[in-house]
Amino acid sequence: MRVDRFLSNLPCFNRQQVRLLLVERRVRIDGQTVNDPHAQVREFSRVEVDDQLLQAGRPTRYFMLHKPSGCVSATRDPQHRTVLDCLEEPDKEDLHIAGRLDYNTTGLMLITNDGAWSRRLTQPQTKLPKVYYVETEQAITDEYAEVFARGLYFAFENLTTLPAQLELLGPRSARLSIVEGRYHQVKRMFGHFNNKVLRLHRERMGPLLLDALLEPGQYRALSPEEVRLV
Ligand code: URA
Which fold has domain 62-123+208-229? Predict the structure, then answer.
């Protein structure tokens, strides 16, 4: 939200006062003085006027995990190990998953407490590609790429999937790039050809590539540059 709107939404300032506060350089966002009414206040920003704290702000946290097979993409589960069990971090209840993976799917999983950031990654509207390495039971023919590029009708959701790109790597292996994350989407796309997915591994989400140094179950914090890419 723009800082002028954020301030004038508060009961203590009207619009004229907000204009003056900015001109007089009395407003700070995350410690920086701002005079531009368009400056952005985010969920996690610390906002001060003179020495009065108006929004405390919280540190944002971003992690990349190499999800192992055999754990659930949930923050808690009564029976199974969850992806959060792989993280040794405080306040894990604040964290959520940006784009779930099935129990046996491996690969890139992003975990954060920043809801706006994870929405940008996962919303179909932003069209960020999610890239999967796929191995199947039966041979993959050239027809698959044409059908996936046109989109497949999913009766349950009553929608047609957005165009997806398939690159054949071998008789039964391929790289698939999709911009949505419908329920079991990749398995259902191959299921259209009655071809079972035997291995599924997410390599990339938008600009973020799974770090080759991370073994299954290992994770690391994202760098500020990586966070800004999304
Ligand atoms: N599509 C699937 O079918 N499963 C996943 O885990 C991810 C995408």
Answer: Alpha-Beta Plaits (3.30.70)
DSSP assignment letter at 171: T
Helices within 63-211 (DSSP H only): 115-122, 142-150, 185-191
CATH topology of domain 3-55: 3.10.290
- Give the tens place of pLDDT for each residue, 151-177: 999 999 999 999 999 999 999 999 999
Q: Is the whole model's pTM more than 0.70, yes or no? A: yes
Question: For residue 49, what are the CA distances in angstroms to 30, 43, 46, 70, 111?
Answer: 11, 17, 10, 50, 33
Pocket, ligand 1, Cβ cutoff 6 A: 101-102, 105, 184-187, 200
Q: Which CATH number fits domain 129-205: 3.40.50.2000, 3.90.226.10, 3.30.465.10, 3.30.70.1560?
A: 3.30.70.1560
102 given a catalytic annotation: yes
The Å distance, Cα 132 to ligand 1 centre, comes to 9
Segments making up each domain of the chain, as ranges: 3-55, 62-123+208-229, 129-205
Q: What is the pLDDT of residues 87-119, one digit of tens each?
A: 999 989 889 999 999 999 999 999 999 998 999
